[in-house]
From TrEMBL:
<dbReference type="GO" id="GO:0050518">
    <property type="term" value="F:2-C-methyl-D-erythritol 4-phosphate cytidylyltransferase activity"/>
</dbReference>
<dbReference type="Pfam" id="PF01128">
    <property type="entry name" value="IspD"/>
</dbReference>
<dbReference type="InterPro" id="IPR050088">
    <property type="entry name" value="IspD/TarI_cytidylyltransf_bact"/>
</dbReference>
<dbReference type="InterPro" id="IPR001228">
    <property type="entry name" value="IspD"/>
</dbReference>
<keyword id="KW-0808">Transferase</keyword>
<dbReference type="InterPro" id="IPR018294">
    <property type="entry name" value="ISPD_synthase_CS"/>
</dbReference>
<dbReference type="InterPro" id="IPR034683">
    <property type="entry name" value="IspD/TarI"/>
</dbReference>
<feature type="site" description="Transition state stabilizer">
    <location>
        <position position="40"/>
    </location>
</feature>
<protein>
    <recommendedName>
        <fullName>2-C-methyl-D-erythritol 4-phosphate cytidylyltransferase</fullName>
        <ecNumber>2.7.7.60</ecNumber>
    </recommendedName>
</protein>
<feature type="site" description="Positions MEP for the nucleophilic attack">
    <location>
        <position position="242"/>
    </location>
</feature>
<keyword id="KW-0414">Isoprene biosynthesis</keyword>
<comment type="similarity">
    <text>Belongs to the IspD/TarI cytidylyltransferase family. IspD subfamily.</text>
</comment>
<feature type="site" description="Positions MEP for the nucleophilic attack">
    <location>
        <position position="186"/>
    </location>
</feature>
<dbReference type="InterPro" id="IPR029044">
    <property type="entry name" value="Nucleotide-diphossugar_trans"/>
</dbReference>
<feature type="site" description="Transition state stabilizer">
    <location>
        <position position="33"/>
    </location>
</feature>
<comment type="pathway">
    <text>Isoprenoid biosynthesis; isopentenyl diphosphate biosynthesis via DXP pathway; isopentenyl diphosphate from 1-deoxy-D-xylulose 5-phosphate: step 2/6.</text>
</comment>
<keyword id="KW-0548">Nucleotidyltransferase</keyword>
Amino acid sequence: MSAAAAPLPPAAVSPSEAGRWWLLVPAAGFGRRMGGETPKQYLRLGGRPVLEITLSRFAGLPGLAGVVLVTSESLPEDLMPSSDVVGVPIHRVDGGASRALSVRNGLAVFRDRWAGLSPGQGDGLTDGLGEWVMVHDAARPCVLRGDLERLLDAARYPDGALLTAPVRDTIKRVDADGRVTGTVDRRTLRHALTPQMFPVGVLLEAIEQGLVAGAEITDEASAVERLGLAPRVVDSATDNLKITHPEDLGIARAILRRQGVLDD
Ligand SMILES: Nc1ccn([C@@H]2O[C@H](COP(=O)(O)OP(=O)(O)OP(=O)(O)O)[C@@H](O)[C@H]2O)c(=O)n1
Ligand SMILES: C[C@](O)(CO)[C@H](O)COP(=O)(O)O
């Protein structure tokens, strides 16, 4: 359903044409499904906080200009990761009551920080809305560099792109009584993962329109789809687990060991 009203802000055709892009990490969740006192992005695997491992997966990627890290307002200083783990500056922003609001708060930095700048002021950016941003869950530390590089290659203005995984099981449609009403052709389905990559202005417009409309926005692509755009899927490794439930910690640890990210 196309909801586009205002013309979309301009941006380079692709992140490589822009020569730079930004990473936005929503890390302001409470981890309720994980249980316990500590939000899951600060639990440790191999002695390292999940968030630090996640950020480290992006270190050295060509064109990465900086990180917008969205955390709870009351983040203890000792939980704030060092920019050394990713090799570029980290700008911390307060999160919101939902993941979509947290992402929106992070995107607003690009508009508010650069608002009023004339060409050549600041760090050479005249319009933050023309930047490219990759949004990645703090709770996904197992993402592979090769998949990140393929996502960078696939993103095009204005539709963007996202990492996905094929569906490996037969999918059933069921009714309220838990009875099967049909079988869905899984060839037309994908698991949406993160990162998801879009022009900042397009994504900010999409999320703000979706929030105003009361739409359920569980990932960035679902907001962009509401504008009538068609993000490109990039099928990727099934390693890219989102740590959600307690059992996911052991799975993630085993994946990270297999990837050589963790020793023990
Ligand atoms: N208000 C929120 C909610 C979630 N997130 C972030 O979005 C990512 C994916 O969300 P999810 O796995 O749902 O994390 P939580 O909301 O913390 O988990 P739960 O739903 O179990 O509470 C996580 O990195 C989480 O920190 C966020 O930045 N702001
Ligand atoms: C963004 C996401 O990770 C894509 O699969 C997912 O939608 C997050 O959902 P959650 O309920 O906020 O964990």
